[in-house]
What we know:
The protein contains four helices and 19 strands. It has helices at residues 56-75, 99-113, 204-226, 248-259, and strands spanning 3-5, 10-15, 20-24, 27-31, 35-42, 79-88, 93-94, 97-98, 124-130, 135-142, 147-149, 174-179, 182-190, 193-194, 197-198, 237-242, 264-269, 279-286, 296-302.
Amino acid sequence: MPILRGDEACEVWLSDxxxxxxxxxxxxxxxxxxxxxxxxxxxxxxxxATSSLTPPLQQAAALAYQQxxxxxxxxxFPHIHRFWNYMADxxxxxxGLERYQQFNLGRQSAFVASGRQIIGQLPAACALGTAQGxxxxxxxxxxxxxxxxxxxxxxxxxxYPEQYGPSSPTFSRASLLSLDQGEILLxxxxxxxxxxxxxxxxxxxxxxxxxxxxxxxxxxxxxxxxGQPKFDLxxxxxxxxxxxxxxxxxxxxxxxxxxxxxxxxxxxxxxVCRQDLLVEIEATLFSRTSVTAEGNPIHASAGx
Length: 304
């Protein structure tokens, strides 16, 4: 994805433990005793059964998630904390269905086939559109469960009505992890949605404000779950996806107005999962005791 602003071309997560890395089918991964990071790429036109009536993206999503679940079962990392999903032309309609809806069908079918639940305790996630390229999925899993955190301002994504597609998105608004070093809050891609409806159509600044209000609501829920205010938006790390590069200055202005000029953010150009949404924000927050500057890299994700 084109980087619109931000010096952080690479995000690195560190572990002070001995790491193991390998490859399984098309997944590359690295892990310590508690946490695993992996990534998979599938070309939907060459690695799926193109003779099938099922859309290629739906097939690729199902296959990718099936491979991920199989690997995690084999390595005994049963709890998935977060997914990052990137696909070309996310809003394009083909085979009579928007491609994001095709992806949701494939993703949920893999959850069901693997015996995983599709409501309730789900991982955090995002799904963004790229100009071209294969389906790319990155993920973090662990041996200890996380707490799924929802947003009281929004209907849970897995409960969305049928107007958003034949299969609801399979994710929670955030995952709250408790590790030896402290707590981590992984917030899903968050946009200007209240209830289940998009708000402020055509107004990118208002959408940014609404997205930040949703982020604040999720942080408040996580702090309540912990019984103390361990997280706040000012100290979060942000990845901000903007549909139209010309909107960068307006989004930055709103982010800095709310969070201050020293906000930790990288701005990327991407298509958001709904055509009427202009910006999406994801965030990672650490409690004070979980921040470390030393260790071995458990994953590095260049520009995304």
